[in-house]
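Service request form, structural biology core

Requester: graduate student, group of Dr. S.
Request type: structure prediction, single chain
Budget code: on file
Notes: please return the result as structure tokens.

Sequence provided:
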Amino acid sequence: MVGEASVISSVRRPLTIAEGWKAGRALVIQAISKRWLVLAGLAFLVASLPLVARSVSHVPALAAMLLLTAAVALAVQGDLYGLALVREHGSATARGRFRHLLAVALLTATLLFIMALLALVVAFGFAYAVASAGAGFLADRPSTWAGAVDGRGRLVLGVVAALGAAGLLWVWARVSLAPAATVARGRVQVLASWPLTHRAAWPLALGNGLTVLVALGLLAPWDGPPRWLALGWRLVAALLLTGVVLPFRIGWLSFLHDRFGAESGL
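Core staff response, request fulfilled:
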């Protein structure tokens, strides 16, 4: 009984920023030391995308380049998750991890797409209601709808849009541990991973948002002179994204999966 109580108390102890930082940093160090060539190759593909988009006018060729980059990124993620948390019954092979993570990515994208459509329907409903209450609104003339929205109406629509964005971030956060759960258990886990995040939905949402902002900041176009400096920055930014941000995020999510999975008995 004493042993069980000590295990439960250790599992349920509050999460700290230091623990997450330590887990993320550990995987960054491990990834750079063991997978530096793979990470550099992915960085080269990411850095090349803007150049390819400008120089290649043939849409199929550009689509092929995007698919290649996405496939390599997915394979690298599977490899990093394998370093972080493959267990005895996990997705032990690179092919198995790639196949499972591809299914997770498609299912997650489908879920978020459906939720985004629902949010748009609600937003359009509020927009019509707000416009119909304004002056100059004519139901048979859509050109009058935007002008009928007054200051209070724009405030209401802004709140609705913010709530919709927060809802999408929350849903994304609730399935953020799906890749880690999938690799660790050796089978596709999307909605099945939902209970794992009940204690950290909003921290995960914040982490997802920060990851997107950092990625956008690093990959923001820089076309100022001299050109070689812009190309150099693009490559450095891609290296930071694939060699630091990506493994840090995967190490952090793997740590959360282990913690919440142990707490839930999964």
